[in-house]
Predict the 3D structure of the following.
Amino acid sequence: MSIDAFALLEVLFPFALVIAFLAWQLRVTKRSIRDDQTRAARELAEAEAHAQAERDKAEPRPAASGEA
């Protein structure tokens, strides 16, 4: 390799490191957002199930026809 090629590598290597870091940071951020959305959806579903159970417990059930 010529000296010019080594000089080019010296210049491009830091840029490659910065690009790799930014790509990793984007991946981590996207994963965090996805985890937060999943957690929020799970909590909402649990809250809805709990509220439905409370409504079912509070409402009197009609008697089934044919029972004595």
About this structure: The CA atoms of residues 31 and 37 lie 10 Å apart.
